[in-house]
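Thread amino acids onto this structure.
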């Protein structure tokens, strides 16, 4: 199969790029590949909203830029921050034109929320399901273009580069090129190749490497792992953001239900098991401090009191207001017997967002030619050591637009014809069906256990060393399976999760300081000498 534009992933970054490409080039083919349903993405589960300066009487670009830089704890690329904040307003207008319905006041002005780290009310939202609404609008818009095809239930195995043409490719190889991807067609169980002039990775996050995460089950770090195997550059993987308030449900592992930060923006108060509002002991901004501070504070309270969670108190918020702003959260709490007017909501931190990822420049270009990355899988320089709440959807739209603008310059001159005959088919000679799936499922649980216990909110050198040793063993066992058994999505995901976990630990080992989301008790202070960690 051949296409002009290949998009891996169907979240807001991938769909925005695909829609723009289809509009600009009606005679060219745009192909979107997703490993499940088109709307099963990290975007879908984004509750709080999208940050953008729309009220210029009270807010300003400078304020949004400053808030982002403060949250990023000295590691943001200021030029990129300015690009995203200033260009983001146009991208918000764009998605509104495509049909996204953000909540409005009675007078027609948009309702603006405030979240941790923001100095002003600037969060546009649709109830507490903003991401789902934006995903809906984009998918509806895509359906009007005949030159877009979406292939569902198709797992991308690897990027195709000169390595597959028989050349030795290392990280120092100049001009590594991406020719497309090998995919596992889940309907035929065959490995097929898709060749493309331009490829965009929009594969989302990696929260599933942890035991508890707000991410869906598809968030297994696939894009980051593929680029690393293809000898592309990865950076700052140690900065994993733990959302402070995931709903605590005993025995639930995998995907946790998110209690958006906007609940605290509307007045929700964190309390420990003794009923004490504890955030004032940790930060003057109390419950609206940046996420890294709130998550560490909750972790500290849980350890002090010996509990597995703290509480979010919303009893003082009028029920009519709560149900209007957070109907999804209200329904979820009711379904497990929590009456928010009478009961405290049990919450605990859960892995939420990867601030590092595939290193890109200000146009979304990776270190591999003709390969772009946007959304959570990319490291653009916006977030630094800690993402400011509700900046992620904004970043995804800005960099998918910028990637498209740059790709537009290339698409006219790049042709697949010289290399098409030489790309080999996938070679599965000598492989057999796995005899026991337990070898895969148990290893997956071990990865999650290792990362949760040793590479969580608070880290030490000893824990990191243990994690690396155990991941090395899992890598050896899984590579042996990979070489000898027929591929399955489960095996490919496990392989990607191990690689992504290794990158998180390796970057954490190199960062001999505590900064933002990376807190190591062996190096409790920040260092001016440590900058971006690039692998």
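Threaded sequence (535 positions):
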């Amino acid at each position: 199969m051949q296409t002009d534009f290949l998009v891996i992933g169907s979240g807001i970054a991938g769909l925005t790029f695909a829609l723009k490409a289809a509009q600009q080039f009606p005679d060219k083919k745009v192909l979107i590949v997703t490993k499940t349903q088109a709307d099963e993405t990290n975007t879908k589960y984004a509750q709080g909203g999208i940050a953008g300066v729309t009220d210029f009487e009270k807010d300003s670009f400078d304020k949004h830029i400053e808030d982002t830089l403060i949250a990023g704890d000295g590691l943001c690329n200021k030029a990129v921050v300015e690009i995203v904040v200033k260009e983001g307003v146009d991208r918000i207008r764009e998605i509104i034109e495509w049909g996204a319905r953000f909540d409005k006041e009675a007078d027609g002005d948009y309702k603006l929320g405030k979240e941790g780290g923001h100095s002003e009310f600037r969060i546009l939202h649709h109830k507490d399901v903003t991401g789902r609404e934006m995903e809906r609008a984009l998918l509806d818009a895509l359906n009007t273009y005949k030159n877009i095809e979406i292939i569902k239930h198709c797992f991308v195995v690897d990027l195709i580069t000169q390595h597959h043409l028989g050349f030795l490719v290392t990280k120092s190889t100049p001009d590594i090129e991406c020719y497309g991807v090998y995919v596992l067609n889940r309907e035929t169980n065959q490995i097929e190749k898709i060749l493309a002039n331009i490829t965009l990775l929009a594969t989302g996050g990696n929260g599933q490497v942890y035991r508890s995460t707000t991410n869906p089950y598809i968030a297994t770090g696939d894009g980051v792992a593929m680029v690393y195997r293809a000898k592309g550059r990865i950076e700052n993987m140690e900065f994993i953001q733990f959302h402070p308030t995931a709903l605590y449900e005993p025995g639930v592992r995998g995907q946790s239900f998110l209690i958006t930060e906007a609940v605290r923006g509307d007045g929700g108060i964190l309390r420990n098991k003794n009923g004490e509002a504890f955030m004032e002991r940790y930060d003057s901004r109390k419950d609206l401090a940046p996420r890294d501070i709130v998550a560490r504070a909750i972790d500290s309270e849980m350890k002090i009191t010996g509990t597995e969670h703290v509480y979010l108190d919303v009893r003082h918020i009028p029920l009519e207001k709560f149900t209007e702003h957070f109907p999804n959260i209200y329904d979820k709490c009711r379904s497990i017997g929590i009456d928010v007017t009478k009961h405290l909501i049990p919450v605990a931190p859960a892995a939420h967002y990867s601030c590092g990822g595939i290193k890109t420049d200000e146009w979304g270009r990776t270190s591999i030619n003709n390969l772009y990355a946007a959304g959570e899988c990319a490291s653009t320089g916006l977030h630094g050591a800690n993402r400011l709440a509700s900046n992620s959807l904004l970043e995804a739209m800005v960099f998918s637009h910028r990637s498209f603008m740059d790709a537009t310059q290339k698409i006219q001159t790049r042709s697949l014809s010289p290399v098409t005959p030489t790309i080999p088919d996938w070679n599965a000679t000598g492989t057999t069906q796995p005899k026991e799936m337990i070898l895969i499922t148990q290893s997956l649980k071990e990865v999650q256990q290792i990362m949760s216990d040793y590479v969580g909110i608070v880290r030490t050198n000893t824990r990191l060393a243990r994690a690396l040793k155990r991941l090395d063993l899992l890598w050896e066992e899984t590579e042996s399976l990979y070489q000898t058994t027929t591929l399955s999505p489960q095996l490919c995901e496990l392989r990607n999760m191990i690689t992504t976990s290794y990158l998180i630990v390796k970057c954490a080992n190199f960062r001999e300081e505590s900064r933002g989301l990376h807190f190591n008790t062996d190096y409790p202070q920040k260092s001016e000498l440590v900058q971006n960690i690039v692998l």
